[in-house]
Amino acid sequence: MDKYCVQGENNKIILIEEGIERELGDCEVITGLNIEVKGNNNRIKLELPTVFLNNTFIQIGNDGVDVTIKKNCRLKALFIRCCFGANQKLEIGEGTTFNSGSIILDENAGCLIGNDCMFSSNIDLWATDGHVLFDRDTKEILNALKAPVTIGNHCWVGNSVKFTKNANLPDNTVVGVGSVVTKTFTEEYTVIAGSPAKVVKTNICWARKTALAMQKELELNNIGALKI
Q1: pLDDT at 92 over 60
Q2: How many Cα neighbours within 13 Å face the side chain of 219?
């Protein structure tokens, strides 16, 4: 694996191991992770252990970007782009997993992802539209960026889900396959689905184990069979 491409001034790639911070060495690389930085005053902070697979790629093309990935994550084939603006912020919480997808932070966009989230494959998260939409007569901007995309703790996001700017999920949300999340949701323990996504089921919980495994666990504990 080639040495990382880092161009500009005061750019830092910081590793945290057992609470101790250090900068990545000049010729040091992290298995499964590619990094390209072209700009100034950018910081990438990686808390280990975290697993990167299938050429996960962090691309920074401007100034003042802050990327934090906390420990025990498993990020596979994830493309993170912070370009065409400045001061983007990304935080991925502890124990979160991605099976493939992209996080696009153009302009001055942000994305905050909580702990123990599970993202399936082909996830697209666009925290800004990238191009302006405005009123023909008044020139009023119609698609302004208002807030970072925020995903709470312990959320499960199904295959091929798309997030648009200003989207917000509370803790303990499940997002159905192929959904498009376009707005702020506030109620926890729900399933949302559709395009645009809406609440379709309430009072739910989820776990990473299979339904069969949970059924066996319930039977062993004399709780009763799982209704499926």
Answers
A1: yes
A2: 9
- Tokens for 65? 């970007």
Residue ranges making up the domain that contains 120: 5-220
pLDDT per residue as tens digits for the range 103-130: 999 999 999 999 999 999 999 999 999 8
Is the distance from CB of 173 to CB of 202 less than 8 angstroms? no
> How many Å apart are CA 213 and CA 164, to the nearest integer?
35
3-state secondary structure of 211: helix
Residue 225 placed within a domain: no
Q: Is residue 226 part of a domain?
A: no
Cα 15 to chain centroid distance, Å, stands at: 19
Give the tens place of pLDDT for each residue, 180-220.
Answer: 999 999 999 999 999 999 999 999 999 999 999 988 888 88
The answer as to whether 212 is a domain residue is yes
Secondary structure percentages of the chain, helix, strand, coil, to 5: 5, 45, 50
- Please tell me the total count of domains within the chain: 1
How is the beta sheet containing 20-23 ordered, strand by strand? 20-23, 12-17, 43-48, 66-69, 89-92, 110-113, 149-151, 168-169
Give me the pLDDT at residue 228, please. Answer: 47
pLDDT of residue 130: 87
Q: Are 178 and 158 in contact (CB under 8 A)?
A: yes
